[in-house]
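About this split. The held-out portion is used to measure sequence recovery: a designer receives only the structure tokens and must propose an amino acid at every position. Recovery is the fraction of positions where the proposal matches the reference. Here is one held-out target exactly as it appears in the evaluation file.
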């Protein structure tokens, strides 16, 4: 059988020959790989716990941003009546620009504006009864407060501006059309089958006020029905909350609420300031104010979270800097080979 299985007495390792003792135990080259893997897992767990601690902070920042958006930039409103059909229907959610009025922008002819009830106008509006939220009502109220949901108890109305301060608006000419400063209006936005107005009127709009009408002329308690009140049914510009810019919900009704061409040929009244001299509220190339909305808050949270994640990866194990915050050195394979 030869020498198979027998100890080889003739061969001795270099360490045994020099020291005369038993051969030294050789540390395997890959002996520290398992330890490095365990250490990397511990680092990941610590980072994961750190990210979980930051989630409440991100949520708080997002809610603060939403509250600022609602107060100064943009707010969602739910439409409870059909006074603006077919442009805006019952149950639609519209986003209202509240930023440009802070910079002196004034309502212009053709704008769809939301304004505060100047004095019991809501009594003439046919509102759809709001459904009871049940157990979710406190949550809905909280979301409405910060602007993520429209509030159901807002005392506001939405109408279209037909005339501004200094204009003379009248109804009607021989063809039954509404006129502004003597210019007849062709109004394609009026509800199909509705005449421009069944109420005859002539109103000189005071400076700093607007004359408004709903697109559903037969179902809108607008300026025409308050002619016997002070200021002949006109609205103060200070009561305007903002300009409706887009129908955001439902998606099937999504559309931008741009300014129609109806008023392009209307001249300013003699002695009135030109509307072009006012601070423009069209700040984007496509004539629509582009503003952040509450729907973009998840994007804000995602960007902040991604920044934190990528920041942590820069201090990974391979860069010799690991652990929470990168404060503990981690020796990688190259460092071990170099003997550091």
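Reference sequence for scoring:
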């Amino acid at each position: 059988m030869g020498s198979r299985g027998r100890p080889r007495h003739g061969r001795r390792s270099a360490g045994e020959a020099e020291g005369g003792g038993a051969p030294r135990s050789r540390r395997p080259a890959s002996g520290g790989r398992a330890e490095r893997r365990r250490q990397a897992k511990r680092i990941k767990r610590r980072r994961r716990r750190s990210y979980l601690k930051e989630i409440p902070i991100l949520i708080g920042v997002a809610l603060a941003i939403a509250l600022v958006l609602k107060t100064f930039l943009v707010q969602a409103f739910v439409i409870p009546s059909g006074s603006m059909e077919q442009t805006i229907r019952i149950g639609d959610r519209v986003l209202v620009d509240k930023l440009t009025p802070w910079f002196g922008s004034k309502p212009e002819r053709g704008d769809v504006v939301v304004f505060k009830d100047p004095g019991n106008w809501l009594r003439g509006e046919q509102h759809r009864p709001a459904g009871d939220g049940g157990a979710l009502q406190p949550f809905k109220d909280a979301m409405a407060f910060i602007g993520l949901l429209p509030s159901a108890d807002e005392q506001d109305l939405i109408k279209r501006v037909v005339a501004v301060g200094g204009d003379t608006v009248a109804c009607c000419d021989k063809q039954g059309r509404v006129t502004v400063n003597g210019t007849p209006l062709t109004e394609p936005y009026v509800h199909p089958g509705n005449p421009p107005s069944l109420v005859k009127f002539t109103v000189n709009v005071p400076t700093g006020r607007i004359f408004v009408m709903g697109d559903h002329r037969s179902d809108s308690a607008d300026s025409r029905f308050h002619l016997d009140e002070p200021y002949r049914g006109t609205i103060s510009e200070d009561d305007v909350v903002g300009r409706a810019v887009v129908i955001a919900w439902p998606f099937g009704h999504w559309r931008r609420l741009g300014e129609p061409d109806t008023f392009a040929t209307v001249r300013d009244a003699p002695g009135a300031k030109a509307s072009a001299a006012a601070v423009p509220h069209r700040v984007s190339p496509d004539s629509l104010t582009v503003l952040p909305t509450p729907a973009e808050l998840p994007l804000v949270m995602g960007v902040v979270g991604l920044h934190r994640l990528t920041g942590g990866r820069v201090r990974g194990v391979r860069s010799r800097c690991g652990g929470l915050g990168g404060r503990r050195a981690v020796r990688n394979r190259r460092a071990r080979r170099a003997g550091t």
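Annotator remark: The CA atoms of residues 67 and 146 lie 5 Å apart.
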